[in-house]
Design brief:
Order of helices and strands: HHEEHEEEE
Largest sheet: 6 strands, mixed
Number of helices: 3
Distance between the termini: 32 Å
Number of strands: 6
Helix content: 10-25%
Strand order of the largest sheet: 2-1-6-5-4-3
Length: about 150
């Protein structure tokens, strides 16, 4: 686990520090690291295979099951290059977290749907908030994504 003084500023508590804050920060850091590595299989290990209900409202995807989410994340892996994730804030407790983030990347899908090489992919900036409900086994059972995409 990373030392508190080495953490992103967004991982530090604002105002009241919940007793489980260090716990949720350590778990979120693992989740972010898996996203940075880009392995859909590793990402899916955070998701409950039976109970998961996933919605990404910015992409107009709602109530996806585990297998549909895995397909979506596999496409993201091939579509996104140079992924950087910054945490703006993280709040909650063991069973619920609200994570505000900024992602920068190169988006490998053109406006006409063509696949673009990394060097031709335009830079994008996404800002959003992810609401995550967790079970006792630290698996995500419900996740709601709210995001806006901007050109950089």
């Amino acid at each position: 686990m990373a030392q508190t003084n080495q953490r992103e500023s967004g991982m530090k508590p604002l105002g009241h520090k919940h007793p489980e804050h260090e716990y949720i920060v350590a778990r979120q850091e693992k989740y972010i690291e898996v996203w940075r590595r880009g392995s859909p299989d590793e990402i899916m290990q955070f998701m409950d295979p039976k109970e998961l209900n996933y919605s990404h409202y910015g992409m107009e995807k709602q109530d996806l099951t585990h297998s549909k989410v895995k397909d979506l994340f596999a496409r993201n892996k091939t579509d996104l290059h140079d992924l950087e994730i910054k945490t703006r804030s993280l709040h909650g407790h063991k069973h619920f977290t609200a994570w505000e983030w900024v992602v920068t990347c190169r988006h490998g899908i053109g406006s006409n749907g063509d696949v673009l090489k990394k060097e031709h992919a335009p830079p994008k900036r996404m800002m959003g908030c992810t609401l995550m409900w967790w079970n006792n086994d630290d698996k995500i059972i419900r996740q709601h994504e709210y995001a806006q995409v901007r050109d950089t």
